[in-house]
Design brief:
With 370 residues, the protein is of the alpha/beta class. 54% of the residues lie in helices and 10% in strands. Helix 3 packs parallel to helix 4, helix 11 packs across helix 15 and helix 13 packs across helix 15. The longest helix has 28 residues. The strands form two sheets. Strands 2-3-1-4-5-6 form a six-stranded mixed beta sheet, with helices on both faces. It has a two-stranded antiparallel ribbon with strand order 7-8. The protein is built from 15 helices and eight strands.
Length: 370
């Protein structure tokens, strides 16, 4: 089968990949000023949700479902701690939303987990907090308490808040975080911040089919993205390639694997969440950048197939079996994964402004395979 690297629709293929990733539904609850929107922004990228002070900027429950995110986030209207009528309305609104989604019968619309935010700087876990957490738990829905703004309390005060939750909400997990941009504040709180633990819990409580969407939507989280690519995505394509080679095929037909390997490469890049990276500011730019990478990989494969395939010389006049087809596809996937990892590290961690196509040259790709 011939593969036309020039006319292959890379952008359509990339969009198809994005649409096949199942999106988890996460509801974020808590009082007004509890830092719900700031939490969303911190984990999924700036401007994912609006941030306001005092009265809530959201009304009711607003969805944040972006084409650049493979997760549906629901930011609930906050409630005023001392307003009993508003508290009652808020409680019913949250529980009604959860129950309505469950009654729909469509598991894709269900709320899959809840993050209940409590502002540590408020130095109070309210009866309303306890009530909502308990009601959600009774619905057998994973719920975690997220203590935000912990830069506003000392160790003893945070411990008291934790103790209140542990006493009143038996078995409910809790995590301490701070979204302050001040690097000095973050360094001072380093021993108390539990971002990794929160994300580990959130991932573990999602069905396997939903984890990819969650992890790929996170800002950064390099190790999790790499583990996902190496542990789930690459093995799927490797197995398909091995299936193609289950019946030995002429070596020249190895070119038939190129579309599969290009799709795998674009799938890996989607997992790294290009829209959350520095220098990529829109979905259009993201799609174009990934399509350019797809073209580069296709050209590299087409022109260097003999060099790239291990033991190629031994099979060039014979047939390619499942072992060779799978091994080549696996090596290709790991090379793309490594280049993606380096690119995210450079742009997100180091803050470099490296254009995406410049990080994926044919030389870099070949070098990463060996």
């Amino acid at each position: 089968m011939d593969f036309d690297a020039q006319n292959f629709d890379y952008e359509a293929e990339f969009q198809k990949i994005k649409e096949t990733v199942a999106k988890p539904n996460i509801l974020v609850t808590g009082a007004t000023g509890a830092g719900k929107s700031s939490l969303i922004n911190h984990l999924f990228g700036e401007d994912t949700a609006p941030v306001g002070e005092g009265r809530p900027v959201t009304k009711g429950i607003l969805p944040y479902s972006s084409p650049n995110l493979s997760v549906n986030l629901y930011d609930s209207q906050g409630y005023e701690i001392d307003d009993c009528n508003e508290n009652y309305e808020y409680r019913n609104n949250i529980l009604g939303f959860i129950d309505e989604r469950k009654r729909s019968g469509d598991i894709e619309t269900h709320i899959h987990e809840v993050w209940h935010c409590v502002s540590a700087s408020g130095k109070r876990v309210t009866d309303m907090d306890i009530d909502i957490i308990g009601e959600i738990k009774e619905r057998n829905l994973p719920v975690a308490v997220v203590f935000t703004q912990i830069d506003g309390v000392d160790e003893a005060e945070l411990s008291a808040l934790v103790g209140r939750v542990e006493e009143a909400c038996e078995g409910v997990v809790h995590f301490a975080v701070c979204c302050a941009k001040d690097e000095e504040v973050q360094n001072r709180l380093k021993g108390y911040l539990q971002w990794t633990e929160l994300l580990d819990w959130a991932t573990a409580n999602l069905d396997d089919a939903l984890r990819e969407g969650f992890i790929s939507s996170l800002k950064g989280s390099l190790n999790e993205k790499r583990d996902l690519a190496l542990g789930k995505i690459i093995p799927i394509y490797t197995a398909i390639a091995s299936g193609v080679g289950a019946v030995p095929i002429p070596f020249s037909d190895m070119f038939a694997l190129i579309p599969l390997q290009v799709k795998m490469s674009m799938h890996i890049m989607n997992t790294y969440g290009l829209d959350n990276m520095s220098g990529v500011t829109s979905r259009a730019i993201e799609s174009f950048a990934v399509s350019q990478i797809g073209r580069l990989i296709a050209r590299t494969l087409a022109s260097n197939l003999l060099k790239l395939i291990p033991v190629a010389g031994a099979v060039v006049r014979g047939a390619v079996n499942a072992t060779v087809a799978g091994a080549f596809t696996n090596a290709m996937g790991k090379a793309v994964c490594e280049l993606g990892y380096r690119y995210v590290y450079d742009t997100v961690v180091e803050g470099k402004k490296t254009p995406l196509p410049e990080a994926f040259t044919s030389t870099a790709l070949i070098d990463s395979m060996f």
